[in-house]
Design brief:
Layout (H helix, E strand, L loop, with lengths): L10 H4 L6 H7 L6 H9 L5 E5 L4 E5 L1 H6 L5 H6 L8 H15 L4 E7 L6 E11 L5 E9 L6 H9 L6 E6 L4 E4 L1 H6 L13 H13 L2 E10 L2 E13 L6 E9 L1 H23 L3 E5 L5 E4 L1 H6 L14 H8 L6 H14 L3 E7 L5 E11 L2 E11 L1 H15 L9 H18 L3 E8 L2 H8 L1 H18 L5 E4 L4 E7 L3 H21 L9 E7 L7 H17 L5 E3 L1
Helix pairs in contact: 12-13, 16-17, 17-18
The structure holds guanosine-5'-triphosphate (GTP).
Guanosine-5'-triphosphate (GTP) binds next to strand 16, helix 16 and helix 17.
Length: about 550
């Protein structure tokens, strides 16, 4: 069929009854004008028809449309029952149209027609029309399409009409010839090949590539309804069967969710590596076969390994433990404990390991289970040497008198309670001395507090150097000192007290930096199993000390 054949004459109209639909739809013109308008429409080369989608009946067709539908008379076409010839795909497509037309939408799509042996692709503009009974009909203007394919190609195009995959056909210059509804919906307003791609330069290169290669597949960022989406793109070179000119087919589907997932995985993998590398704890990840999966630089540093951590990957962890055990104060214990933990597969944190060089490491062991399946284990080593020293320092400070360096009242209480318990439960003996400087107030008042402090320090040093290791000298108050003497009877302690008393007096005389000398009074008592509280023994020591003061100072008294 050619367009020339379709030239209508006004005669055609004489034996046709124009439907009154046209009146309401087109111009709302007076009835007398119907025939003139219909005659005008018959003169169009463009086929125009009105189709009742619900009843599957034709309501109007101009002369060009009659030829397209291969009808000899309009009446024959209006009487035609389309339900018997309409394919299921076409019925579904039209069923999609109905609500859209009812909403007033104008739908532009390609439709294929097969009059005789011919295949015609028309760009159909489908608009809503109100029919006589008030229902919505479809007014179709079949405009010429750029595409000229043979019948089988058009049928192939029809077949891809219902796929969610986007299919577009371009000519050799990248101008759009036809696209299926999925592509049409995604690319409204975009009609060139390069406009489909976010990267136009890449589109240019692809066109050139297709001149050399018959097909090419890629993943690219494409433009879809003004947004950018990742698509898998299949490009295939073809030839227009009529003109012999090159064209190519592009099939696309959305892979954005997969790409997003891949990106997220890549980012989190990289982030994980950065985190592992940046950690200042030594980290070693083993698989269930006890092979190293990951180690970080901090791990190598802790064990003095002079290889980059990547070189440990794949190494047998049992061998690694054997070769590093020499770093530990108890090498065999280190290896044995690792094997125990692995056998138990129970999380273990804060395992303290003493190193041969005096450092302390804290070890955490975590078995790795994914969905109840064992996948190896994670070892984390942390150097806590500084922390340990700090803690020891704090503990010492908390229990030490800052002026003299002797144990303070808190330590004295703890030690005295412990000794009292031993005396009670183990029937051993212990003594307590209370030492008080004589007339210390006068020294302070005449020479000042700072000079007085020198005296206190001298007394503390004398106690420290004169007593046994097992004795505990403490500064329990201003110028009041106590000495706990485990394993000693009050009588034995009395002898020691006298010796101390003399040594203190001599020390004050010998000390060149001390501008005064002093004596002390000492009260002596013994811990008794019957003492309910340590205050009892302290009171006796206190009483003995006051007795010594009372008796003239510079002496020892026993309670
Ligand atoms: N320099 C110095 N003096 C202290 C410190 N703690 C207490 N003192 C002083 O020690 C003196 C204790 O005096 P008292 O307990 O009254 O008795 P005393 O002068 O030692 O006389 P007797 O104990 O009766 O022999 C007071 O002057 C206190 O201020 C201290 O940390 N440094």
């Amino acid at each position: 069929m050619t367009r020339d054949e379709s030239t209508p004459t006004t005669d055609t109209l004489d034996h046709r009854k124009g439907p009154s639909d046209i009146v309401t739809t087109f111009h709302n013109a007076p009835q007398t004008a119907i025939r003139d308008q219909a005659a005008l429409l018959d003169r169009l080369h463009t086929p125009v028809w009105i189709f009742d989608i619900e009843q599957e009946r034709m309501h109007y067709a101009n002369a060009a449309a009659l030829r397209l539908w291969e009808a000899t008379t309009p009446q024959a076409l209006y009487a035609r029952d389309f339900s018997s010839t309409m394919s299921e795909a076409t019925r579904r497509r039209l069923a999609d149209y109905l609500p859209r037309l009812a909403r007033g939408e104008v739908i532009d799509e390609h439709w294929s027609f097969y009059p005789g042996e011919e295949a015609i692709s028309l760009h159909c503009r489908c608009s809503p029309v109100v029919m006589n009974d008030g229902r919505t009909g479809m007014l179709v203007e079949g405009m010429e399409s750029d595409i000229s394919l043979d019948a089988s190609s058009l049928r192939a195009l029809e077949a891809i009409r219902h796929t969610p995959m986007m299919v577009s056909v371009f000519d050799g210059q990248g101008r759009l010839l036809v696209r299926n509804p999925a592509a049409l919906e995604a690319r409204q307003g975009l009609s060139s090949f390069d406009a489909c791609f976010a990267d136009h330069a890449m589109a240019e290169q692809l066109l050139q590539r297709l001149e050399r290669e018959p097909r090419h597949a890629l993943e690219a960022i494409m433009r879809v309804n003004g947004r950018e989406r990742w698509h898998h793109v299949d490009l295939c070179r073809a030839t227009d069967p009529k003109t012999g000119l090159p064209m190519f087919v592009m099939g696309e589907f959305d892979i954005t969710p997969r790409k997003a997932l891949e990106t997220a995985r890549r980012v989190s993998q990289r982030q994980l590596e950065v985190v592992i590398e940046g950690l200042d704890v030594g980290l070693l990840l083993e698989d269930e076969e006890r092979r190293v999966i990951v180690a970080n630089q901090a791990f190598c540093d802790l064990f003095g390994l002079e290889v980059p951590p990547e070189q440990l990957v794949g190494m047998d962890c049992r061998e690694a433990a054997e070769s590093t055990k020499g770093h530990f104060a108890e090498p065999e214990g280190f290896v044995t404990r690792i094997e125990e933990l692995v056998a138990e597969r129970r999380k273990q944190t804060r395992d303290l390991l003493a190193m041969a060089d005096g450092r302390f490491l804290e070890r955490s062991y975590t078995p790795l289970f994914v969905a109840d399946e064992y996948h190896g284990h994670l070892w984390v080593y942390r150097d806590i040497t500084r922390q340990r020293h700090q803690e020891a320092d704090w503990a010492r400070k908390a229990s030490t008198d800052p002026l003299t360096g002797l144990a303070n009242r808190r330590s004295f209480d703890e030690a005295a309670r412990s000794i009292a318990r031993s005396v009670k439960e183990e029937a051993c003996q212990a003594a307590l001395l209370m030492i008080d400087i004589d007339r210390f107030k006068a020294i302070n008042d005449t020479l000042g507090h700072a000079e007085g402090d020198k005296g206190l320090r001298l007394l503390a040093n004398t106690l420290r150097h004169s007593l046994r290791q097992s004795d505990l000298p403490c500064r329990t108050g201003g110028e009041e000192f106590m000495v706990i003497m485990p394993g000693m009877s009050p009588e034995e302690a009395r002898t020691v007290a006298w010796r101390l008393l003399r040594q203190i007096a001599e020390a004050t005389i010998e000390a060149e930096t001390l501008p005064f000398y002093f004596t002390v009074s000492i009260g002596v008592t013994g811990f008794k199993p019957t003492d309910a509280r340590i205050e009892a023994v302290m009171q006796r020591a206190d009483a003995a000390m006051y007795q010594a003061k009372h008796e003239g100072r510079n002496r020892v008294a026993v309670h």
